[in-house]
Design a protein that fits this description.
The structure is a homotetramer.
Chain A: H1 5-23, H2 30-37, H3 41-44, H4 51-76, H5 80-97, H6 99-106, H7 123-136, H8 145-164, H9 176-186
Helix pairs in contact in A: 1-2, 1-6, 4-5, 4-6, 4-7, 5-6, 5-7, 5-9, 7-8, 8-9
Chain B binds a DNA duplex (21 and 21 nucleotides) through helix 3.
Chain lengths: ~190, ~190, ~190, ~190
DNA sequence: GATGAATGAGGTTTCATTCAT
DNA sequence: TATGAATGAAACCTCATTCAT
């Protein structure tokens, strides 16, 4: 029984994401993906131009999507604390909703990050900008915005890594209060 | 003209580490490594059993070595703040001394972590233990030791990631004061 | 231009058999086989899992097939002389029909015989059993059934070897009367 | 402790013979041989020019040696029965003394037989000649000397094969009386 | 939309052999 | 005599990709 086009396409996405994260991009073969999906290798080429294009598609779609959601959240919030709260929530929500995508976008080391252009919406850049603007407005102490952005991002990326390796239970959203508190402390902001 | 044994072995180590980190394990071929070293592919097999064994050798040696240095530092220090200071220093020193090894051990996603056995000295585990023991002694507020360990590790691993991508200048050791301060704040400890 | 599946599969079988017998298993490369078939090496792996599996497939299929035909012939005949006549005919017919398969199964020294399990139909074992049962029934003098089976088998295997090296002309079926007579004499049975 | 030259040379011979017979010439590597001997691969080249020369040395030395002993035995005996008895003894003695050499010379399929020249003493040829001369002298019935030689050789080669595969116990010399009797019967000679 | 045979390049590994030591 | 690092070719096999069906 042939599946609908969109069904197979979605299954390819899911399998490829899972395998890229589990085994790494270079160690995942098109055959691995086809086998996981339950089709032959040739069928994959009906949906994607090739392995590189598939990886880039998965990456850029997720990368831009996350960036847009982060941008919306930070824009809707007032004050650096609320902006960061919203963004941390967004990261945690993505992890809980689609851990493979989260890992692929933010933890795994594939070559895709090198293809990101400066004009693409960029989650990391958005966090940096929010921090930098808060410094300019004097909401937090002036300093190296990149360093502070890294410290903040570490608060969510490292717990996510721990969750991947089973050191933290899921959903990660349950850790939001602790992570928010740590974030505020780092920035010397009053607790919520 | 054959080189001394230890010379070639060391060069293989360096090249493999560099390439595994740059391109990923699965996307690095033995030919890539041989070309970087300046020998033929066959020569690699006189020094290592194969690609997997080479990766595991690099990983386990570095992993255990780092763990041992961390253990020494934390054991030599008194109080959780000093223990964490020492360990953070050790991480930063490794990054500045050998960024490829740092990335391979702590940032890159290869399959090696899955082969780590519970009885091997483990950097992550050491950080967790130091945190847990501080909680038991009441030096810091009780809580989930794994989560706190993740937050602390994030303070060094994420800046390192930023340094890899050029968002932070090197040496990373210069950031030690800022990172220490953030660490103390997270744990609600007085500044040094 | 892809051929029909069964066509290529059969051609691989024929070429592999021929080369394994001519050059020996270990001295025949997959490239040799592919070149003989007229496809690339990779194509072979769509039909067989690998070189070992290919050899085992050829061997076990032929080994069991011959055993089944021998079994049918001996079961259909009455008296040890007729049973042995039928089996000798079967051996000679196989040699004349497919000398490469005959050599691969019965003359060549590859590792395949070691993989034969006791529950597989086995040509040598069938000859031994027929001899042993004739001894039990008193049709031939009691003695070491394995030794007598060896002597009988030698009557057909060694002429086949001579034919392979050009010391005897083909078809070998023409030698059946002489071989039968020798067989009867060895067993002290009256001539036909 | 370095070994004497002749010692190592002999050990290479023994190991190579054993491995060529066990695994086949093409599936035996110089490394296999060196490992069995207990030296490095390079050392083998102090004693033999290469793998091919090693195999040919083992083969031709044994082949000619056996032929010379067979020739001596048949020349010393009077009458075809005694000549064949002597030769069969010689075959069985070789099997019991050095089964690996026996297998290498007479059972295994390596490429060496193709290199045998017509002017080399040749065990198979000697058996054929003795049979042919007996036919000329009317000691046995006239017929195809090659076929009769094959039948006689089969009486010793096939039991040897059975002994290799454990179907017959050793020493094979114990089977001499049975084999002689079978041989006389085939040739319609009176029992001894 | 999917299959499956095929390709040609390239993967990891092993080979026989050489040579400075 | 022997070692052991090295080579260059070739081993087996897998890769991403194409295409007739």
């Amino acid at each position: 029984m042939p599946r609908s086009r969109s069904d197979t396409r979605q299954r390819i996405r899911d399998c490829a994401l899972k395998l890229f994260v589990e085994k790494g991009f270079g160690s995942t073969s098109m055959r691995d993906i086809a086998h996981c999906v339950g089709v032959t290798e040739g069928a994959l080429y009906r949906h994607f131009l090739g392995k590189d294009e598939l990886a880039w598609h998965l990456f850029s779609e997720g990368f831009v999507g996350l960036a847009e959601r982060l941008e919306r959240r930070q824009a809707a919030a007032h004050g650096v604390a609320a902006k960061l709260d919203g963004m941390l929530d967004e990261f945690l929500a993505l992890f809980d909703a689609d851990p493979a995508l989260f890992s692929f976008l933010l933890l795994a080391q594939h070559g895709q990050l090198d293809k990101v252009t400066a004009d693409m919406p960029n989650p990391v850049e958005i966090v940096r900008r929010v921090v930098a603007e808060a410094m300019e407005r004097g909401e937090i102490a002036a300093g190296n915005a990149n360093l502070v952005a890294a410290l903040v991002l570490g608060l969510v990326l490292q717990p996510a890594t721990f969750a991947v390796y089973g050191r933290l239970t899921r959903p990660l959203g349950l850790r939001a209060p602790d992570i928010r508190r740590a974030c505020r402390r780092i920035l010397d902001l009053p607790p919520s």
